[in-house]
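Morning. Coffee machine broken again, so started the prediction first thing and wrote up yesterday's gels while waiting. Chain of 399 residues, entered below exactly as on the submission form.
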Amino acid sequence: MGRIASRIAELNGEGALSVFARAKELEKQGRSIIHLELGEPDFHPAAPVVDALRAAVVAGRDRYVSPRGLPALREAVAEYLLRTRNVHAAPEQVLIAPGCKMALSLAMLALIEPGDEVLYPDPGFPIYPSFVRGLGASAVPFFLEEKNQFQPDLREIAAKISPRTKVLIFNSPNNPTGTVFSDATLAQIANLAVKHDLWVLTDEIYARILFGGQYKSISSLPGMAERTVIIDGFSKSFAMTGWRLGYAVAPPRVINAMDLLVLNTFTCAAEFTQVAAIEALRDSTGAVDAMVTEYRKRRDLFVAGLNRIPGFRCQPPEGAFYAWVNVDETGVAAHDLASTLLEEAGVAAIAGAAFGSAGKSYLRFSLVGARNLLEEALERIERVSSRWRGVAGARSASR
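Came back before lunch.
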């Protein structure tokens, strides 16, 4: 029998999905589970977006289209990025893909060769190092530590750049920490990229979900437009997860390479979802701002509640919709604690090691439940905290 390609052994899955599967098993047994494991908004697309999709299907907008995407959508993306991020990009620099993961994969296929080194954040989205390894390259982590408010240490990054370093990947706001990289951090990363002739992959899927200030894209900094690939999409900001629609914005030669990869793989993203995405970018009902306002309220409620749990410590996230909780003082391993919360309290969360070695003392909760559900989750966690309350108290007193 033929063998499976060795690259498959280099890939890993996502911890959130395995927790979700176990949570669904418990629900089938009649258990009440509060789902805070998946990064999927509990909102749905605004009514005009749904109407636009329905009208597109009725009008027969279900044909093959350009591999790069509908010209009208690419124009809308370029205008949207200028309006929301001060990023100047021509429609010809935009490529539409069926989901952000596909846009990210295409960009990585276009830029990374076997033997290259790629810098990525730890903790971070687990697909970054997974796909790098699958391409035969080396994934080199740089760490986001609580003592630095989860901002990267630029001295560490500089020390890890070698002659083989080709790409630096990051996302801001970060999944799972919720950290927004500071202007100074972005400027220093840009300086390193120019100095060492690196490509930068900036995953901006959470760029609109900010709890203060204006978003700055590294692409807008001097010398960066020609070496930056922006990855973004509609799943998070527009609550269109199942629609599978993302995009990349990059220099023309990168887009040309990605276009050839599209022709050799999926041909094009669905026409009718692209038509509806144009309406999403218009955001005529202010749905994005309303959603972010609600996330801010959830963040404030949930983070305050988590910090009252013995042994829990959580810095308020600056963006995205996650709470990243240090549980070291409970005296319980984060993986075991996540299991206890799921099996005994009916609260599904992710052990932080799923996001890299730097996450081993953390749990990630998604703020994707209504406020009453978050309050119920806090009550359930409080009830089972008796298991570690004494240990947490002793550790706190000894500090």
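The CA atoms of residues 186 and 218 lie 6 Å apart. Going to sketch it on the whiteboard this afternoon.
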